[in-house]
Amino acid sequence: MSDIHPTAVIRGDVTIGSRTTIGPFVVLTGPVRIGDDSWLGAGVVIGAPPEVRSWTHPRTDDDPAGGGVVIGDRVVLREGAQVHHGWKSVTQVDDDAFIMNQSYVAHDCHVGSRATLASSVLLAGHVQVEPDANLGMATTVHQGRRIGRGAMVGMSSVVTRDVPPFAKAYGSPASLHGANVVGMQRQGYDPDAVELVTRAYASPRPLLDELVRDDRLTDAFRSWSS
């Protein structure tokens, strides 16, 4: 059984899993599916129409339209966070993601498992945030960009290019500044794997093809290699 505050507004095809908490003044507009043990703070909005100029914005009594939103298990969305309907596909937030207050996930984004979006992070449409990535406060990510597994983006960065796995990036526009050593250590990678990634990002041109051949790193780098 879920805990749904009486002020929450829920309309359309909305499925809420077991033991999920829906806080005050949350707005859920289907199609939306939320998994088990998730937590939505006050004022969270899930399922608003995609912010596309050509989109026909519905009247309040119209049936909801859009590609939908899927929220996984044990996801935390803090106060005022927004996740919009998909435009060309579903918008998705995977298990154990942590999205802090006032953050914005636009249409067709995919936020991976255990990823962290700090306060006021803005993801434009079609952004992919891979598992275990961490985006600092007030980071802005341009549409269609990709943040690799375990990457760390410093606060207030403006990301206009893809950030590869386990990289550390910051600035406006953001640029690479070596490997996310602390993040790799926290995720349990052994010292040799951390050193391999550190050396790769210290080279003039990161050697992703070499990283994908290492069994410990194959999954993270396979889709990034040439």
What top-tier CATH class fits best? Mainly Beta
Rounded Rg: 18 Å
CATH architecture: 3 Solenoid
So, the CATH homologous superfamily? Hexapeptide repeat proteins
Low-pLDDT stretches are none
How does the major sheet shape up?
Answer: 10 strands, mixed
Number of domains: 1
Spatial arrangement of strands, main beta sheet: 1-4-7-10-13-16-19-22-24-25
In which range does the helix fraction lie?
10-25%
| Helix-strand pattern | EEEEEEEEEEEEEEEEEEEEEEEEEHHHH
**What is the general shape?**
elongated
* Share in β-strands: 25-35%
The number of strands is: 25
Briefly, what is this?
This protein has helices at residues 181-186, 191-202, 208-212, 218-221; strands at 3-4, 9-11, 14-16, 21-22, 27-29, 32-34, 39-40, 45-48, 69-71, 76-77, 82-84, 91-93, 98-99, 104-105, 110-111, 116-117, 122-123, 128-129, 134-135, 140-141, 146-147, 152-153, 158-159, 167-171, 174-179. By secondary structure, it is of the alpha/beta class. It has a single domain, classed as Hexapeptide repeat proteins (UDP N-Acetylglucosamine Acyltransferase, domain 1, 3 Solenoid), CATH 2.160.10.10.
Question: Any descriptors?
Answer:
10-stranded mixed sheet; 226 residues; alpha/beta
Could you please describe the fold and organization of this structure?
The chain is of the alpha/beta class and 226 residues long. It has one domain (3-184): UDP N-Acetylglucosamine Acyltransferase, domain 1, CATH 2.160.10.10. Helices cover 12% and strands 29% of the residues. The chain contains four helices and 25 strands. The protein has helices spanning 181-186, 191-202, 208-212, 218-221; strands spanning 3-4, 9-11, 14-16, 21-22, 27-29, 32-34, 39-40, 45-48, 69-71, 76-77, 82-84, 91-93, 98-99, 104-105, 110-111, 116-117, 122-123, 128-129, 134-135, 140-141, 146-147, 152-153, 158-159, 167-171, 174-179. The strands form three sheets. A ten-stranded mixed β-sheet has the order 1-4-7-10-13-16-19-22-24-25. The chain has an eight-stranded parallel β-sheet with strand order 2-5-8-11-14-17-20-23, with no helix packed on it. A hairpin with a 2-residue loop joins strand 24 (167-171) and strand 25. The termini are far apart. 43% of the residues are buried. The model has no long low-confidence stretch (mean pLDDT 93).
